């Protein structure tokens, strides 16, 4: 499928430059590369290093800290390209944390912390790829986290358990969310949570951090971990922003991140669709290409229509996100994530069906896209929680929890 089938939204010169640059880079990382990374569950280090050399890991970091100082739409373009190139969800996910963990640092960290990490993040010399929020006893109810950070002199002491934390094995630092005031003692449950920049080498040196990888089937090149913090001592200067306001700091920028996730799902969906179209044109059964059969052609075309529509919603949201109020920004970003994840899933599903038995053969990649497309409906927020947002905050329906 010519890539222009995907080029359905208006981009300015800078955004086209991002697209062409990422297309050039990803041309060296083909389906064989991704198939092998998936089979071996191996991080795409070569791709990430190349993106770092070209400055793309600092896409959101201001120029004064060595980044390129671009915005949400440019990130969406980059992430879609990384997915559509054959990287699927794993391609963009391999760098996602590093891109978005820069946001609260830029907005809230002290100058000292910014100077310590942002230039290195932009060049790729420092990896701050992990955000540690989710906990086993809280799940989607993230303000119920139980990890505690107790102030002792000029340090905080962090104790607690995290789960499903991505890229810890490829991170020098992590952002850790912990309660500095128990939930029972705050007026609103969103209060009393703080954000810390944790030096992971220091944590291992203190013998205050254990991690264990969670074996999983989707997005295998990007690993997820359980983490146990046991009395980790973090200097006070590593508190990011204001004590007790970490959850608000995290929410600030969340809508932009959600659009990036939508773009990642779109890239994956387009990759699956491209495989479906190629195979439907090539495979001959009953003396005709299977793509002549409307039972194959129509679902492929329908998946394309859904991807196009989700792409329109995603990119138009990126254009206006800063000009609309918070609820409307949330509505647009959540709608984009919801539609993109479902559109990617539909595209991957028809891609598997069109391949017949080869739909489950590793060599055709569509089974990999299918596994990854299923994951996009679960992370970073489940489809149900997105619908809760739209139902409660936009439509005024009663909250069920
Ligand atoms: C591969 C992967 C990578 C991840 N990376 C990170 C990371 O880097 N950092 C991090 O902090 N977290 C990470 N997560 C965690 C992720 O954000 C959570 O898995 C996700 O938010 C869902 O939480 P849960 O798994 O606990 O599901 P649960 O909250 O247990 O939900 C289970 C099911 O119940 C539904 N449900 C629950 N409550 C409601 C309700 N009120 N209304 C309707 N439906 C409801 C959910 O939609 C879901 O279908 C990752 C997860 C995965 C799988």
Automatic annotation (TrEMBL):
Keyword line: FAD, Flavoprotein, Oxidoreductase
Domain Acyl-CoA dehydrogenase/oxidase C-terminal span(s) in chain numbering: 244-379
UniProt-listed Pfam families: Acyl-CoA_dh_1 (PF00441), Acyl-CoA_dh_M (PF02770), Acyl-CoA_dh_N (PF02771)
InterPro entries: Acyl-CoA_DH_CS, Acyl-CoA_Oxase/DH_mid-dom, Acyl-CoA_Oxase/DH_mid-dom_sf, AcylCo_DH-like_C, AcylCo_DH/oxidase_C, AcylCoA_DH/ox_N, AcylCoA_DH/ox_N_sf, AcylCoA_DH/oxidase_NM_dom_sf
Keyword Ribosomal protein: no
Domain Acyl-CoA dehydrogenase/oxidase N-terminal: 13-125
Record-annotated Acyl-CoA oxidase/dehydrogenase middle domain positions: 131-222
Keyword rRNA processing: no
GO molecular function: acyl-CoA dehydrogenase activity; flavin adenine dinucleotide binding
Cofactor(s) required for function per UniProt: FAD
Top-level taxon of origin: Archaea
Family under the similarity heading: Belongs to the acyl-CoA dehydrogenase family.
Protein name: Acyl-CoA dehydrogenase
Gene source species: Halocalculus aciditolerans
Upper taxonomic lineage: Archaea, Methanobacteriati, Methanobacteriota, Stenosarchaea group, Halobacteria
């Amino acid at each position: 499928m010519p890539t222009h089938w995907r080029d359905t939204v208006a981009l300015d010169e800078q955004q086209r430059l991002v697209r062409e640059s990422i297309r050039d880079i990803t041309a060296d990382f083909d389906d064989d590369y991704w198939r092998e990374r998936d089979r071996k569950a191996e991080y795409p280090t070569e791709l990430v290093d190349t993106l770092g050399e070209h400055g793309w890991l600092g896409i959101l970091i201001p120029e004064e800290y060595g980044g390129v100082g671009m915005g949400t739409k440019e990130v969406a373009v980059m992430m879609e390209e990384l997915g559509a190139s054959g990287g699927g969800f794993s391609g963009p996910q391999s760098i996602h944390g590093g891109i978005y963990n820069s946001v609260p640092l830029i907005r809230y960290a002290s100058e000292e912390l910014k100077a310590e990490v942002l230039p290195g993040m932009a060049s790729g010399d420092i990896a701050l790829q992990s955000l540690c929020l989710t906990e086993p006893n809280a799940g989607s109810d993230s303000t119920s986290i139980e990890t505690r950070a107790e102030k002792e002199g000029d340090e905080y002491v962090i104790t607690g358990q995290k789960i499903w934390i991505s890229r810890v094995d490829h991170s020098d630092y992590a952002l850790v969310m912990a309660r500095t005031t128990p939930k029972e003692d705050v007026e609103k449950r969103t209060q009393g949570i703080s954000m810390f920049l944790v030096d992971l080498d220091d944590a291992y040196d203190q013998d205050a951090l254990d991690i264990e990888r969670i074996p999983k089937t989707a997005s295998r090149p990007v690993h997820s971990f359980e983490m146990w913090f046991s009395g980790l001592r973090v200097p006070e200067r590593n508190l990011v922003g204001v004590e007790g306001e970490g959850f608000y700091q995290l929410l600030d920028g969340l809508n932009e991140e959600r659009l990036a996730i939508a773009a990642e799902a779109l890239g994956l969906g387009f990759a699956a669709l491209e495989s479906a179209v190629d195979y439907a044109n090539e495979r001959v059964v009953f003396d005709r290409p299977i793509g002549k059969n409307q039972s194959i052609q129509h679902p492929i075309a329908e998946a394309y229509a859904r991807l196009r529509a989700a792409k329109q919603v995603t990119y138009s949201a990126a254009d206006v996100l800063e000009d609309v109020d918070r609820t409307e920004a949330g509505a647009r970003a959540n709608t984009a994530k919801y539609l993109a994840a479902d559109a990617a899933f539909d595209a991957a599903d028809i891609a598997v069906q069109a391949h017949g038995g080869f739909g489950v053969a590793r060599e055709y990649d569509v089974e990999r896209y299918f596994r990854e497309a299923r994951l996009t409906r679960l992370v970073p927020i489940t489809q149900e929680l997105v619908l809760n947002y739209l139902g409660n905050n936009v439509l005024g329906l009663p909250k069920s929890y």
